[in-house]
Amino acid sequence: MAIENPQQTDTAAERFERLVDHEDVHTSRRESIGAGLALFALVVGLPVMLLVLAGPPRIPTEFPGMRELAQQLSVEDVIAVLVGVVWLVWLFFVVCVIFEVIAARRGGLATTVPLAGPFQRLARMLVGALLLSGIVASPAQAAEPAHFGQPTTAVGLSSASLDAEIQTLVEESADRAEEAAAELAGDKVYIVRAPDNGYHDNLWDIAERHLGDGRRYREIYELNKDRAQQDGRRLELARLIQPGWELVMPDDAVGIEARPAVPDVPATPAPAPSGTDTADSASDGGIIDNAMESVGQWPAGSGVLAASVLGALLLVRRRRIGRRPDDDARDIEADVRVAATSDRIAWLDWALRDLAASCRAAGAVPPSAYQVLLTDDAVELLISPDAPDGVDGWTVHDEGRRWRRDRPDTGLGEVPPGEAVPYPALVSLGVDVDGRDVLVDLESAGGIVSVTGSPRLAEQVASSVAIQAATAPWADTVRITASSLPAGVADIGFERLTAVDDLNDALADLTAHIGSLPDDVLRGRIGRRAPASSALVVAGTAPRPEVSDELGRLAGGGSRALAVVVAGEHPSARWRIRVDEAGNLELPALGIAVTANRLGAEQVESLADLFAAGRQPEADVDRTKLPAVIRNVDDAAWATASHRVSVLGSVDVQGVDADLPRIDQTAEIITYLALHPEGVHPNLVGAAVWPRGVTPDVLEAAVARAREVLGLDVDGTHLLREDAEGRLSVADAVVCDWHVAVALVSQARRTTQISMETDLLRRALSLVRGEPFADAPRGRYAWVARDDLPRSIARVVVDAAERLIQLLGGDPGGAAAAAETGLRIAPGHQPLWRSLLRSRHATEGVAGVMRTLEDMVHALRGLPLDPETEALVEELLPPTTEAAQA
User: What is the dihedral of CA 474, 476, 477, 480, to 10 degrees?
Assistant: First the structure.
């Protein structure tokens, strides 16, 4: 939406801000004056009054003896004691004021003074009011939060009117985001983090982390003061910085990359170069507008890359619950969850395996596809040489140069198990101007693929290629050799990637691998369901000439089983990819122009920690540490609650109309508040539900909608409430199954009666329906990664199931039920599978073991069995059993 005359056209956000500012200008002045007078009276006036009325405070020089203590107190003694108490209270208050003033000048929140709750709150309120007057100047503070009082007039609007107003606000927010992207091009930009466990990001700490000296916070302030943020607010005196704000940093800031430039978008796409020696020009290209919105630390347009990484991470976590990742790793996981187009990547994997199955049924060889265009509704193969004869389910276009598979209206069906993918070296380069993921089969290049242009971004593109191949579901037969890529790249994904210091050391193995393959690799992949592996070499810098020549010879043999990607110029490259500082990628030989997939060293490091945490168990303890019981509710309260929030399975908010507009967004707000019953500031709700950013007016309208949807409590008050300090919470009548489970398990641990413990654990496990937050809508509930909720829930449920199995040692049926419940939430937890194998063997014999093995293979999704599991299966099955022999 373009605003041609800003003097005549007001945005909704500007109207909102003007109304607020009009009221607040006079109010803030009155509050500042009143706060100054009150603070002066307490800090200065009170001791002066005490000195005038009672003289200097009496300071004892020795301890009183027993005779003095036994004497009756006189009126003077009582007054002296009271005066002494007042002096001590005054001193305590002054200490709180000093802490708050120092914190205000640094731009953060003060450290909690022990035992000073009400005194520190009073000091914070008065010092905060003085910020408005400038007496206590804090350049580290920014626009004050939106006003969240009682339901706004938005509550009284019809659904259609409310939706129309919000749509207008969203469009205006997008306009501001585009303007900000252009304004910050070339600058190093820091994105303010959301508060975590009581810690609030502030300019002092930002300066310490990235400039090496907290006192340099003033430089950050000077670079950003009065600059409008995407939410319409500004950094100015007496206001706190907000999560999601973009702060321009000094040029010498470390750990922050410069924001890429935003090129102009040509009116028509640039034509693809002709006369290539690889294939016909496949699609028109052009420079892509790189103003696409990034998600925190995750680059724009990298949804397929994010989905590959997330899918691999969740599969690793199926085998072991793992330890808690560090803060940066959990931040990037949240970004990955927002960006991931998991449904799209599942659709592509299904389509490729469906192609293999259809070719097998027709006795045909898959077409030689070199490029794939992917949307939510279709997969399109670009083919050379032409393949005019199609197969079932695929339509042929342009005389066999394109094959297309439309997504079935009835959903994705089952593909024969073990079906091979004909293009395992398929990787996404990025997203084009039409929003399509553009993938290329690196093996079809028939030689080396070089990535040129910006050396920094060329290495990031190479890292993206290696990590995609290490995590994509269709690349399970690819073996990657990586060199000169960021540390930690070999820890991402499964055991497909090996990092080497010198590619020369890998040449002998690669030569032997190529020599062992059949001439027609495509036919071999379809002819056998356990195909020979493909090989991919990815180098972050150009190898030595003799190594490059040998790699080019091996890749150019026509086998389609070796691909080589190098960052840097290579004289004999078959494909040359160019990437600029703006993240625009072009592959002229194929007419490709996209916003590039790329991963920097810091992102690789955080991703590596996520996978390492998934593989490493927490410290060996007898029982999992339980989270604190936030709400002491039991299953009776759950059964009778008017509104229930379920997260022990697919997210479900019961007691509201599921057909209301924007119900997914509203349900997420309610779920977030239900899981944070202590109350949270609206800015935290905004940062959680809208990780890409949201304007105050849109946030307020959404909260108002959630308040209206929840309705009223039995006493006539709103179930969605706001306290005196502006924090939002839901009433006790809104019950969450996770809180019920924690309360029951906690009670079970406290009891000394075995029968009661057994009953409590059974009741807790009865709430479990499946994996936590399963089937969450795309891009939603990313904040659960920062809160580490899925892992925490799984640990508590598995611990409860294992304890119940232990208590039910003489009841194999009950133990089997407990194991089955634990496996709903942690389907890859092999100790529970071993318990289930034993229990079913006790009740059903070999048939029960065979049935359990079938379920286990499906749940593990190809993950290897633990040695303990293999040994148990051998023990429980007779030697002549086919499964045991396999």
Answer: 110
Residues 6 or more apart whose CB falls under 8 angstroms from that of 876 comprise 837, 838, 841, 846, 849
Contact (CB, 8 A) for 442 and 563: yes
Three-class DSSP category at 443:
helix
| Structure tokens given for 255 | 């750990």
d(CA 51, CA 48): 5
C-alpha 411/C-alpha 567 separation (Å) is 40
**How far are the Cα atoms of 366, 741, 805 from residue 873, in angstroms, in the given order?**
39, 33, 19
CA distances, 175 to each of 293, 323, 686 (Å): 12, 42, 19
Mean pLDDT within 80-89: 80
Task: Give 576-621 pLDDT, tens digit per residue.
Answer: 999 998 889 999 999 999 999 999 998 999 999 999 999 887 766 6
CB atoms within 10 A of CB 13: 19
* Element (DSSP H or E) covering residue 585: strand 584-587
Nearest-CA neighbor of 229 among 139, 142, 148, 107? 142
- Characterise 378 by phi-psi region: left (phi > 0), alpha (psi -120 to 50), beta (else): beta
Distance separating the N- and C-terminal Cα atoms of the chain: 63
Amino acid at 315: L
In our burial notation (b when 16+ CB lie closer than 10 A, e otherwise), range 349-380 reads: bbbbbbbbbbbbeeeebbbbbbbbbbeeeebb
What is the rounded CA–CA span in Å between residue 380 and residue 396? 10
CB neighbours of residue 766 within 10 Å: 15
Its pTM stands at: 0.69
